[in-house]
Amino acid sequence: MSSSHRVRVLGREFQVRSTSPAETVREVETFVNEKLKEVAASINSADSQIIAILALMNIAESYLALVKENDVRNKEGNRRISRILGEMKSNLE
Known about the structure:
There is one protein chain. The chain is of the alpha+beta class. The protein has one domain (3-92). Helix content is 71%, strand content 15%. It has helices at residues 22-42, 48-92, and strands at 3-9, 12-18. Strands 1-2 form a two-stranded antiparallel ribbon. β1 (3-9) and β2 form a beta hairpin. α1 (22-42) crosses α2. The N and C termini lie far apart (52 Å).
């Protein structure tokens, strides 16, 4: 069931709906605001749209790196499982 939450991002207040608990919504709000502050501190622009786009690009880059890392770990895990199953099968024969 989705609940309504108030969040503040870039000085603007938003009403959002989420199925996540309020604590998780606050964690997301804090994470987003921290990323926006990091980007704002690293560039010479006060344009909130540029700051938001660059923060989004940074978050997307991190996300995609984690997806790739997860894929590699899943493939390695599947290889290990296949090897172990093969060894078990040959021990049973």
